[in-house]
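Protein 1 of 2
SEQ + STRUCT:
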Amino acid sequence: MEDMKKLDPATHAWLEQMAPNTWVKAYFSTFPKCDLLLNNTCEVFNKYILEARELPILSMIQRIMGQLMTRFYNKQKELSEKWPGPVCPKIRKKLLKNSEFANMCFVQPAGVCIFQVQSRGFDYIVDIGNKTCDCRRWDLTGIPCNHAIACLRHERIPAEDMLPSCYSTETYSNVYAFNIMPCRDKTMWEKMNGPPVQPPVYEKKVGRPAKSRRKQPTEVQGRARPKLSKHGVIITCSWCKGENHKCWLCP
């Protein structure tokens, strides 16, 4: 943070106003079993309903319902045909990758469920009883890290047995177990004698509608796409190592 403050005081002041658990991995909660700070789930769902969002309200709901019906059916079929075993495929791949790195770990037992693991010149304390490790990968994701897998091998415990239930195919099956029932035709809907649903009033705006996003003042239009300028970057001379001038303008 001190280096950031010297480099860009405005960015440092902006980050100081935010809680550390919203952007620093060291302060993340271990409850959700996720070590990522992304909004990809929202972005993927918005892309999934992009065409439906342009429709009227009833047509939009019916389109989204049809997409979810197809998705639930495909997930049920995929689980029954392509997912053998008790663990989801992506989690199994991560376990196998961590198992390869566990070959370079040296384990020293310190007590019941407590181990000291040496890996690449660092020492880590692993508690397989509480499922914690000093690297915090096991704490945040619930997937045993390479240090934990090395300790589990020492105790002859399969790494898959230490996974939380959220990574099991049984939990995945329970999520997509129910079906979204289709609706009857509009002519068979029950009359509720409510106010009719009308589309919003169309207001024509002045000018051509914007299609491109608003660019930042520091963005420069390149040949293929916009690019960031060197705004705020301190230029260093390659000859005298001085600042704010180039080598061909060096005094």
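Protein 2 of 2
SEQ + STRUCT:
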Amino acid sequence: MIEEIELFEGSLVTVEAFSFRQRKNRNRHGGREMFIPVVDKLAAALTPLDRSKGGTVLKNAYGNPFSEKSLTGMMQHWTRQAGISDGYTLHGLRRTFGTYLAECNIQARAIMEAMGHSSMAVTDEYVREANKKRIAVDIARAINQREEKRDQMKQRTNLRIVR
């Protein structure tokens, strides 16, 4: 779907996006309206597909959208075809997306909205994990810098006093 969006600065921009109602709660009712702009890499991956009529991108052999259950089964089939070990699921891709957003330093509230979470509890997990990684990397950098300075000090020639 192509939509014209007004940005915060007041300018209009044309954006390709997916728009749908998320149905993720146990009773499968309600859900949140989701608007997901297509990023450049996704647009490039979608280029070979015929999207002239809009609608669903992933379709079964009959040209119909996958049901949730059949898409889950196909994900398992595709991972096996690709030689990927069992255990990689659609929900795992969703969690990877949340982790990726947190590692990109996206604000927690924005991650919550992008993921369709109704509270910050799950979103905070992604942010905490990303922060743990950042802290570990910062520690490793500090150690490397400290050791580099120590090595440079050792390489200096000793001063000799000549009388």
